[in-house]
Task: inverse folding
């Protein structure tokens, strides 16, 4: 069993205390915020902090620390089947803005974290957890399987050094861009002594076994589909996406990945409606670290790169338990 069964007083938002009995029946949503871009850091993070504060929500913010090379992602039109369709379905050009779509190609790639250290620090000051998303998001997402190990270590090492300079302490968690992992990246994460990572899609916390190799850093997988996977499919729109999430929460831990560029920008109204609905139903939004604290034990599970609906390209997926 993954979560403790101690009786717990749950403070519902109508002001009543209810004895919920156990964690398993309390729905919680751990919010994982991926911050991919320069504009998303500058504008999206601040918007999310305002909205979360309004509803008492907490989250884990994963920051891209190095250059914003978003323009280079355009080459995925040629390399990843379905990428163009997904971009158009989710209106990505409008969401990300023309400038962002040109960074690293026609426009120079701006440095993200060192441009906005106060924005990063503000997230932690407001009681959220902070971690590392990447050094160069696009490079990791598109080329990790071909990285020599020293490059994987260098990407995380550079991000880690700048993180420590900005926050005055080391990062305890990372989340890979595009849920892209390799045995090397898991090995580097083990060597960094992280408390946990959130690199995968799955159902419950686990220790990863990839290509027959066992790793010791706990994985907290994203359990819910992201907005860009849902929008435009099965009648889901920015106006009703909050209904999908509220109807599909499991008892116990749910992990939702949101993007500063989307939920803090183009579909900010949708996210506010979701926060509102969760708060009025007494569902708490927490950091991933809070969820980790409830984990007594976790199984070892196979981790592999595979296909999920709504995404162009492979993501790390939690597989069967390994004894
Ligand atoms: Zn990302």
Result:
């Amino acid at each position: 069993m993954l979560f403790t069964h101690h009786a717990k007083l749950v403070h519902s938002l109508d002001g009543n205390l209810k004895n919920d009995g156990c964690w398993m029946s309390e729905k919680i949503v751990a919010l994982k915020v991926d911050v991919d871009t320069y504009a998303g850091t500058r504008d999206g993070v601040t918007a999310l902090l305002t909205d979360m504060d309004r509803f008492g929500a907490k989250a884990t913010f994963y920051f891209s620390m190095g250059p914003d090379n978003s323009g280079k992602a355009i080459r995925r039109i040629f390399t990843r089947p379905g990428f163009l369709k997904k971009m158009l379905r989710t209106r990505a050009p409008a969401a990300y803005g023309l400038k962002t779509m040109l960074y690293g190609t026609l426009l120079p790639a701006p440095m993200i974290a060192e441009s906005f250290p106060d924005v990063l620090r503000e997230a932690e000051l407001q009681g959220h957890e902070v971690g590392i998303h990447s050094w160069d998001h696009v490079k990791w997402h598109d080329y990790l399987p071909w990285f020599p190990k020293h490059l994987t270590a260098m990407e995380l090492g550079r991000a880690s050094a700048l993180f420590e300079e900005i926050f005055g302490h080391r990062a305890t968690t990372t989340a890979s861009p595009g849920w892209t992992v390799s045995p090397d990246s898991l090995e580097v994460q083990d060597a960094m002594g992280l408390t946990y990572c959130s690199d995968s899609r799955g159902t419950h916390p686990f220790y990863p076994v990839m290509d027959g190799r066992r790793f010791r850093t706990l994985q907290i997988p994203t359990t819910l589909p992201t907005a860009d996977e849902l929008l435009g499919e099965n009648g889901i729109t920015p106006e009703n996406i909050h209904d999908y999430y509220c109807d599909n929460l499991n008892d116990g831990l749910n992990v939702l990945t949101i993007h500063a560029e989307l939920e803090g920008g183009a579909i900010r109204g949708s996210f506010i409606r979701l926060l509102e609905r969760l708060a009025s139903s007494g569902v708490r939004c927490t950091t991933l670290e809070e969820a980790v604290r409830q984990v007594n034990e976790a199984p070892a599970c196979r981790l592999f790169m595979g296909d999920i609906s709504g995404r162009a390209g492979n993501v790390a997926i939690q597989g069967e338990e390994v004894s």
User: Anything to note?
Assistant: The longest helix spans residues 149-167.
